[in-house]
Amino acid sequence: MASQSGETGPIDNDVSLPEAMVMAGFFAVSIWNCIQTFIFIFVTFKSYSGLYFWSMTVANAAIPFRQIFALIRLYGLAPTLAITPLVSFGFWAMVTGQSMVLYSRLCLVVGEPVKLRWVLGLITFTFLFVEVPVSSLLIASNVPGQEHLARAFTIFENCQTGLISAQEALISWIYVREARRAFKPIQVIKGERVKKTLKGLVWLFVLTAFLDLSLMGLAYSGQQFAIMTSYKGVVYSIKLQVEGVVLNSLTKLMRRRSCTCGSTAAENFTSSPMTVMGVGMGEQCTTPYHSQIKKNSADAKSSGEDLGTAVTTENPERHSAELRRIFGTERYP
Q1: b/e sequence 1-40, b meaning 16+ C-beta within 10 Å
Q2: pTM to 2 decimals?
Q3: What torsion do the CA atoms of 288, 294, 299, 302 make, to the nearest 10 degrees?
Q4: Is residue 10 a part of any domain in this protein?
Q5: Do 51 and 139 fall within a single domain?
Q6: Which of 213, 240, 256 is the last residue of a domain?
Q7: Residue 11 forms part of a structural domain
Q8: 50, 247 Cβ separation under 8 angstroms
């Protein structure tokens, strides 16, 4: 009663020694990556609160949790029906938690609350109507006398893998698309940092797509179900590490010394006591860079200053001096 995911029962003697060694290697790599990520989390964050911190922590803790119970399940070290809910719970926290990590920083580049609610709704829908039903089918297939449900679980589990991969790829693509817009007003001041951060977001999108495709390849092969179980942990541990580095870089880039909108920072990082612009869960900064530029341009014009197109984003390099004069060299070093 084994499926591609290796979560419907013990593997018994179906795995050869080389395959068992590969599985052991994947388990070890995923655990080691999680240890590194925990170090990154507790060194990087000064305040252990906020959606970003907790989603990172839960998603990372869920990986070894799921890996350990999946290993116990694969080798039949405990009753299958008792272990299955724990494996499913770990899977939910690992997958949904990682999507919430991406969502928690999306407000830095997306200024429209409607778009943010749409992404959150997509994550919620996937959890309630994809992950929960498939996990319920998995548990039901392990009830004595219901083994015939294993085939249905295999089909829906493959569909789940594809849908979750598409969701994560979509959120990563939104980052790249919206960041290109959000970075225009500040590119003249922080040109190299902007390019580096945007390049990191692009590589995050590429890496996410590549790892998800490799996971889907194993899922649809119908052969390496046991290896896929251990490989899932490696995929999500690598993606979480990369997401943490890239999103932390994005947070530092979008940080400024003051924000007139009154929004509060969700997290304080060790490198600086600056306020993060628009990072509060469910609250948006009403004066992001492009809006602030327009506001100050209007103020300057009303006072008799002829700025023309000094603060438009179409030709920012021509008017960098005006930007510094309007905002001040402290805010735009």
Answers
A1: ebbbbbbbbbbeeebeeeebebbeebbebbbebbeebeeb
A2: 0.74
A3: -170
A4: no
A5: yes
A6: 256
A7: no
A8: no
For residue 268, give the nearest of 49, 120, 109, 87 by alpha carbon: 49
Regarding whether 99 and 236 lie in a shared domain, the answer is yes
Q: What is the CATH number of the domain that holds 236?
A: 1.20.1070
CA distance 225 to 152: 15
Domain count, the chain: 2
For 45, which DSSP code? B
Enumerate residue ranges in the chain where pLDDT < 50.
1-5, 257-290, 293, 297, 300, 305-320, 322-333
Measured in whole angstroms, how far is the alpha carbon of residue 138 from the centre of its chain?
26
| 308 and 239 belong to one structural domain | no
Q: What is the pLDDT of residues 235-274, one digit of tens each?
A: 999 999 999 999 998 888 877 533 333 333 333 333 332 3
Three-state DSSP at 331 gives: coil
d(CA 81, CA 73): 9
- Tell me: do 197 and 323 sit in the same domain: no
Residues 6+ apart with CB under 8 A from 153: 3, 8, 134, 137, 138, 141
The answer to whether residue 280 sits within a structural domain is no
Identify whether residues 134 and 41 lie together within a single domain: yes
**Residue range(s) defining the domain that contains residue 184:** 17-256
Single-letter code of the amino acid located at 325? R
**Minimal CA–CA distance to 218: which of 66, 82, 55, 22?**
22
Nearest to 65 by CA among 90, 32, 94: 90
Question: Do 60 and 200 have their domain in common?
Answer: yes
Measured distance CA(232)–CA(217) in Å, rounded? 12
